[in-house]
Structures are given as structure tokens and as C-alpha cells.
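Forum: Protein Structure Q&A
Topic: Joint prediction for protein chains with partners

I've read a bunch of threads here and the consensus seems to be that you should model interacting components together rather than docking separate models afterwards. I'd like to see that in practice. Below is the full input, 827 residues plus whatever partners are listed. Could one of the regulars post the assembled result?
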Amino acid sequence: METENILTEDKQNLKAKKFLMWLFIISSFMMFAALTSGFIVYTEGNVERGIKVLLPKAFMYSTMLIILSSITVHLAQDSARKLQFDKQKLYILVTILLAAGFFYSQITAWKVLYESGAYFVNYNASQSFIYVFTGAHLLHILMGVFFLIYAFLGKLRNISQARNLFRMEVASIFWHFIDILWIYLYVFLLLNQ
Amino acid sequence: MASTALHDTAVLHHDDHGHDHGHHKETFLTKYIFSQDHKMIAKQFLITGIIMAVVAMILSILFRLQLAWPDKSFPLLETFLGPKWAEGGRIKPDFYLAIVTIHGTMMVFFVLTAGLSGTFSNLLIPLQLGARDMASPFLNMISYWLFLTSCVIMMCSFFVESGPASSGWTVYPPLSALPKAISGSGTGMTLWLISMVLFVASSLIGALNYISTILNMRTNGMDMWKMPLTIWAFFLTAIVGVLSFPVLVSAVVLLIFDRSFGTSFYLSDIVVAGQILPNQGGSPVLWQHLFWFLGHPEVYIVIMPALGITSEVIATNSRKPIFGYHAMVYSLIGITVLSFIVWGHHMFVTGMNPFLGGVFMITTLIIAVPSAVKTFNYLATIWRGNLRFTPAMLFAIGLVSFFISGGLTGLFLGNAALDINLHDTYFVVAHFHLVMGCAAIFGMLCGVYHWYPKMFGRMLDERLGYLHFWLTFIGAYLVFFPMHFMGIDGVPRRYYAFTEFAFMQEWLTVNVFVTWAAIISALAQVAFLWNFFYSIFYGKKATQNPWHSNTLEWTAPVEHIHGNWPGEIPSVYRWPYDYSKPGHHTDFIPQTTPFSETMSSNLHHDFEDNPEAVRIQEEWEKANPSQTRASEHV
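Posted by a regular:
Agreed with the consensus. Here's the joint model:
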């Protein structure tokens, strides 16, 4: 089984394609590194700048949801490896649901921020940055959901196990990345609160 | 490396399968338009790049006309450009700024980034490494289409009411962030930003593909230290791209918010036409930090592929191994690393902390070391070589020349104290046009002349090539050399009206001279364009290995086939620079020739401390004393 997987994987250069995902993660990380460095350059050395509001509680809930979704995506991948495809599909769906919850929670956080006077259009751009960080991250969540759906549809159409594992693995690598990315952004915001 | 072999047979099987069922019949659409074959995508990038280069070159002639004859009218210009941009046959200030901006953008991004990396990375990475295609041919196709869309959108900005973006290729806010500031900051600027985001996406997808292919899909025996220097250069260029382009996206996103949503990331304390704008608290220097964190690596994205191409061409046409292969690789790595910590030298006069300026000055000057290593290695390779002056070789030597003369002025500009005088003058224009403009375009042309037979299966006409080279080479020096003196005198770049300032008036005659030189070099490109497009159809048929080169691409058949090699992918046994190896009967030994076939020229060094191989070699030398290298020297 294992050797057969390696065989089919190499037929389609799946190893090289999986590597593309890692490289994409690096470039995506660079984008957020630029945004957060931009925040530091902007905020540094000026007392009128800075976040200056309490971060909404919703960010806490988002964090829990996304950590949970990282676990379910791992379970989905595990089930795929053990050929338990019903479980795999179930866990993918649960992950997508959790992602929807995360999305909702982030929007709620925006609402709370807006109500507390930290608008997006703001003379203190440090507060605008919060929206940029979370917005750019939400785009990544959408992309992650796309990969999950891609893996789910693949399994529905019963593609070969090698390709199923490939799609599952790509989706889960990316999903863990956006999980860690959110934690990075949240901690970054907390430290600059 | 068993995996590569498996991959190899797998594709063959796949092909057989295709022919059996007739799924693989290529139509015009799949072959030329939505092609996923890396060789076709390379040609698409090249031809799009050439078209963009011609457009950008025509723009440069237009603003050179204005600089040389600011008070003269050319009625023809009004005929072509209309009264809005060239009323009474004189280019209007708004349009002047727009064409300067678009000339820079197109040349830097579309020609020297996509046209250069896109063409040669796509063509050579699979062919020189022995792969059937890229890691993801589909993404490769997407990369081209995003690039083309981005070119089309940039061209569209010429046809909108308010004209193209006009705030320079670096689009510094607040000028670029306020649609009302100048007419070019309106719709034209929006189109510029959209075009740039698409372009970044295209470059990123391309770069991811290049890296993954180089790391995962090399043929049997092709370890990293047997790769040609072209591949090393493309590899490191792609890494620089992956790390720097996303930063431009971040910067552009913030700029779009400032322009269209009213945020104040870059804006503060601004009065436009007597009206105070509400934006407060932003910092335009933030843009400069983000932009130049991309912008400086970008110039190495432009020059490194050119350096890689030149290494290959100079070694081949000197019939000598490249001097200091390892030093060449390490200097490329050095440039890659240093390119990320020098961006501040573009910002010496923004009120930067002098200590920080000192740090950036030191890192900047250190870049001279790897650059000089490369230059000396080129010269050492040429030194006492068996030179073949093909057009490609001439362009390669031209690159070395421009790289030296443009690089020297980098030492002056990298100096924080001198930069107070020199910044934003024609000295800067002269510097970067020589070191990154001319050097990179010469690298690109060198690549076109050298790999044209590989791309189109035909040869370019040599005599037209020589004409093209000499006119361009002399013309380019005549254009950019005088600009150094203008810059030292303090003539600022980007100014429209030379006659308005008394001290600049004396430079008008020089400007006339420069413009004539520019026109002549532009006309020289007609020779190239004719040669290029004519030879695609009517050029002399190419042989498989016209330059007697060692690298793998010349073992593939002249006729392009999907998958590059008809049978198994060849294996690699040696490095790519075995030219004129003593004891061998030809002056080149392809990478695919095993050492067992070249007993008379093998050196102990070739075996990388493999005792068994050394033993076999020594036995053979004892048995054939007349043919050994030792006896030759006696």
C-alpha cells in the first residue's frame, strides 16, 4: 500500500506540488510580516498612535474555534490515512462549520470594535490596522475552506487514494498555517494593546 | 533518486495512454493559447515582454524629445497623441509625468522581471535539469495569463480620460494616494494598482513553481552542485521574489484603502487646492519602507537571471570552465541575503536616523563584494579563452561592461553623505539605467541570441545581431554616460521644463546629444525585431547543439515535444563546464557523458573521493601510458 502510494504520487509530481503549498505559506507569511512591521513602524514613537481600545472578547472565541478546527482537520487527515472515508468527510464538514463560526465571530468582533469607536476610517491608523490584519486573515480562511471543499468533493467523486491523501494533506497544511497565523496576529495585537 | 526514474516511466506510460485513446490531440487553442507546456509559456512570456519593451521604449523617445527640444513643436505628435496630451505638437506636463512613470513600470516589472525570469526560467529550468515540465504546468499557465491581464490593464490606462498613473514608478503617497492631486492619480492610478496586484500574483505563482521544480524534479545525478549557474540564478531570484513580492501586496492594499476608503495609513496634514483634507496621523515614510523592502530586492530579481545567463554564455563561448563556479554560487547567495537589508539606502534623505543610515550604508557597500567577485570571475573566464564572438557572447561581454561602469557609481550613491547631493538627480538615473537597465536587458538579449535555436528551432541572422549589438552598446553609453555629469551639477530627475531654470539651460545641448543617441539605439532595435520575427519563419534551421554546449537542453531534440525527451530522461554524470578539458578529443564534454567514456581526460578531482573510481582510473592509466594526461605534459 505504502509503496503503491509513493508510486502514484510520483507519477503526478504530487511531492513537488505539495512543496508549492509550503512555499505559498512562506510568501503568505511574508505578507503578514510586512503588515505587522508596518504597524510597528507606524505606531512606534508617537503617543497618539496605538490600539487604545480593549480587544473584543469575540477574538477569544475565534481563537478557540480555530484551534478546535485545527484538531478536526487533523482528525480528517488521520481518517483518510486509515481509509475511514465516512469519518474523513464528516470531519471535513465539521471543520468547515467551525470555519463559518470563526468567520461569524470575527465579524462580531468588528461590530464591537465599531461600536466602541475604533472605526476602520480612523486618524489613528493603528486601529485601522486591526481591520486589515483580520480582513486579510479572513481571506485566507476563505481560501482554506476552498481547499477543504476541494478535498471533500474529491472524496465524493472517489478519486484515487493517493490523490485523496494529497488534497487532504494540502488542505490540512494550509489550515494549520492559518490557525498559527491567527494566533500570531492575536498575540501581536494583545502585546500592542 | 529512484523517484525521478519512476516519474520518468510514468509520464511515458501516460503518453502512450493518450495516443491510444486520442485524448491528446492538440488544437490551436491548447497549443498556442492555453498552453501548459513550459517551452510555449516561455515563448509567450518572451513575446509579450518584447511588445512591452517596444511600448516602453517608444515612451522613452517621447519624453527624450521633450527634454531635448522643450520649446519646439512637433505637429506629428499632436496627430498621433491628440490635443489632450500634445497640444500644438508639444508634450504636456501631465502626459510627460505619465510616460516617465509607465516607462519605468513597464521596463522594471513587465520586461525585466516577467520578460526575463518568465522566459528563461520557464524555458531552461525543466530543460537544463532534465524534467518533463514544471511542478505544476497548470499554475504555470495561470502565471502567464495573470501577467498578460496585468499588461493589458496597464495599457488600458492610456485610454482613460484622466490618463495613466503619473507619480513615478515608485508611486509615493501622498501624490498617488489622492485622486485629486494630479490627473494621473485618478483612474490611471487605480488601474496601475490593479495591474500591479495581478502582476505580483503572476510572479509569485511563477516563483513558487520554479523553486519547487528545482528542488524536487532534477534528473538522475543532477545534484545541486552540478546545476548550471543559470539554474542557480533563477533559483535564488525566485527565492528573492517569494520573500519580497508579498510585501508589495501589503503596501498596495494599504494604499488602496487610503485612496478609496478614506483611511490614513500614509496621509497626514494635506492641503489640496486650498482645501484641508481630513486625513490625519498617517506616515508617507511607511510606504517607502514597505515599497523599498520589495523595491531593492526587485533590482536583484532583475539582474540575477541576467548574471546567470551570462555565466553560461561566457563559459560556452570562451571554451573554458567558468572561473570559480563555487564562488559564483556563493556570491549569488550573498547578493540574495544582502538584498534584504539594504532598502534604507533609498531613504537616506527622508529624515532617517543618521545611525540607521550608517548601518544601511555599510550593508549597501558590502554588496560590492559579491558583485565584484562575479565581475572578476567573468573576466578570468574570458582571459586567454578560445573566444567565439557570437552575438550572444558580445551581449554577455556588454553586460559585464555595463555592470562594472554602472556598479562603480553605486559606491557613490550608497554613501549616505554623498547621497545628500546626488539623490534624485540624473546621477541616479545614469547609475540604475547602466547597472540594472542596460546590464539586465543585455543579459536578456544575450539569452535570446543564445537560446533562440532551442526556442524556435532556427538560427538568428548573425550579421544583424552584430549590427544590433554595436549600435545598442555604443548608443546606450552615449545616452547614459553624460547624465552622470548632469547629476553631479545637480540637475534633478523627472523635471519637465529644462528652460525654466538658469543653471539647467546649459545642459540643453547635452540633452540634444543624448536624445539623438537614444533615437539611434531605438532604431537599432528594429534590426533585432526584424531578425527575431523573420527568423521564426525563415531563419536557417538549427542543429541540435549549435554552440557545442554541455548542458542538458542541447540533448533534447530540435523539434519540440511535450515531455522534452522522446525516451528516458538523460542522466547526468558531471558538472556543466567541462570545456577544453586537457586529454579529451573535443573541446566540450556534455553532462550526459559518463567518466567511463572519457578516461583520457579524467582527473582524480572528478571522482569526489570515490576510492573505487580512483582505483579504476589509476589502473587504466597504467594500462594506457601513452594516452594519459601525465605523458602529454612530458
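Strands of chain B lie at 271-272, 275-276.
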